[in-house]
Automatic annotation (TrEMBL):
CDD domains: bS6 (cd00473)
PANTHER family: MITOCHONDRIAL 28S RIBOSOMAL PROTEIN S6, SMALL RIBOSOMAL SUBUNIT PROTEIN BS6M
Domain of life where this protein originates: Bacteria
InterPro entries, per the entry: Ribosomal_bS6, Ribosomal_bS6_sf, Ribosomal_S6_plastid/chlpt, Transl_elong_EF1B/ribsomal_bS6
Protein's job: Binds together with bS18 to 16S ribosomal RNA.
Protein name according to UniProt: Small ribosomal subunit protein bS6
GO cellular component, one term: ribosome
Keywords from the named record: Ribonucleoprotein, Ribosomal protein, RNA-binding, rRNA-binding
Source lineage: Bacteria, Pseudomonadati, Pseudomonadota, Alphaproteobacteria, Hyphomicrobiales
Extent of Basic and acidic residues compositional bias: 96-142, 149-166
Pfam families referenced in this protein's UniProt entry, alphabetically: Ribosomal_S6
Species this chain originates from: Mesorhizobium calcicola
Disordered: region residues: 96-166
Family from the record: Belongs to the bacterial ribosomal protein bS6 family.
Length: 166
């Protein structure tokens, strides 16, 4: 039998008990077709990136499956017919991960990998965003905004344009 990780999104207006009932229903489909369900993680109600069937949030659930492809096809067929399931995704894996998934790990554990904030800036020194001194710019004269356009003289009309010089 093959190993799969399966994630599905349930509607936001369901209760957690109804989501658990969906999980039990799909576990029954897998076991009736000769498979087994390992770890089941409820990731909770999360915001969606974009609206799906007028829903802005969804209940995310991960299931580790060990089943034949026919059992998986039947479960996905039933999910496609269900109005309570917005989306689902199944990925075939070589082995199931041990411990909690990346979504369930605490932020502190994930931040041990390092983020953008602890990159080495080398010899550039620390960043300063709007307060850096521009210093003297000896290669160009200072700007003057008060007399812009004052020394340009009268404007000439363009040729070939109505009202211009002929």
């Amino acid at each position: 039998m093959a190993l799969y990780e399966h994630v599905f999104l349930a509607r936001q207006d369901l209760s957690q008990q109804q989501v658990d009932a969906l999980v039990e229903q799909y576990k029954g489909v897998i076991s009736a077709n000769g498979g087994s369900v390992g770890r089941v993680e409820n990731w909770g109600l999360k915001s969606l990136t974009y609206r799906v069937n007028k829903n802005r949030k969804a209940y995310y659930t991960l299931m580790d499956l060990n089943c034949p492809p026919a059992a998986l096809n039947e479960m996905e067929r039933q999910m496609g017919l269900s109005e309570d399931v917005l989306r689902f995704l199944t990925v075939k894996v070589e082995a199931h991960e041990e411990g909690p998934s990346a979504m369930m790990q605490k932020r502190e554990e994930r931040s041990e990998r390092g983020g953008f904030g602890d990159r080495d800036r080398g010899d550039r020194g620390p960043r300063s965003f709007g307060d850096r001194d521009r210093g003297d710019r000896g290669d160009r004269p200072p700007r003057s905004f008060g007399d812009a356009g004052a020394d340009r003289g009268p404007r000439r009309p363009r040729e070939g344009v109505e009202g211009g010089a002929e």
